[in-house]
Request: fold
Amino acid sequence: MVKVNAVGFVCPVPVIMTKKALNEIAEGEVEVLVDNETAKQNLEKLAKELGYEFKSCEVDGNFQVVINKKPNEDKKETKEENIVVVIDSDQMGKGDEELGKILVKGFIYSLTEMETLPKTVILYNKGVLLATVNENTIEDLKKLESMGVEVISCGTCANYYHVQDKLQVGSLTNMYTIVDRQFKATKLIRV
Reply:
C-alpha cells in the first residue's frame, strides 16, 4: 500500500499527489490522508473517473481515502492530438478578483501535471499578463513550454497593456495565428 499525506494542501495538490502515486504502481492500494471534505470528494471523483474502487472514512479529524487500483483490460485511453487551451484573463471566473487569480494559478499548475498536455496555450486580452508580469504563473507556463507546449500571447493585447517588452515565456503572435490554432484544434478549452 502506498501512503500519501496531503494534509494541509489545497486543491488541486491532493489530487495530483494521488494521481502520481497511482501512476507509480501497476496495481494495489493508495491511501490518501486529507484534512477537508472538498479534497475527500475530489479524490472520490478521481477514483470514479479512473474506474477504481475506493472507500473513505474519517480518521482523527482528517479524511482517509483508499483507492484500489486494479488493471482494467477493457479500459481504452483516448488521447487528443491537438488540444488548445485559450485563456483570456488574468483570473478565472467572474467572481472575486483575488479568488479568480488563485484559480487561474491552480489551473495552469494543473495543466503541468496532466498526462495529456495541450499542444498550445493561447493568451489574449488580460491573459497576456500571465506570461509577462504575473509572477504566480510564469514558472508553470515555462514548465509547460519546456514540456513541448506552445505558449503564444496576442501581440496587440501585450501592446495595449504596455507589457510587450516584459514577455517571460512563449512568443508574441497575431490574431490570424490565434484563429488558425483554434480552427485546427481537435479539442478547445476556454478558461
In short: Residues 97-112 form the longest helix (16 residues). The two ends are 37 Å apart (CA to CA). The CA atoms of residues 87 and 191 lie 5 Å apart.
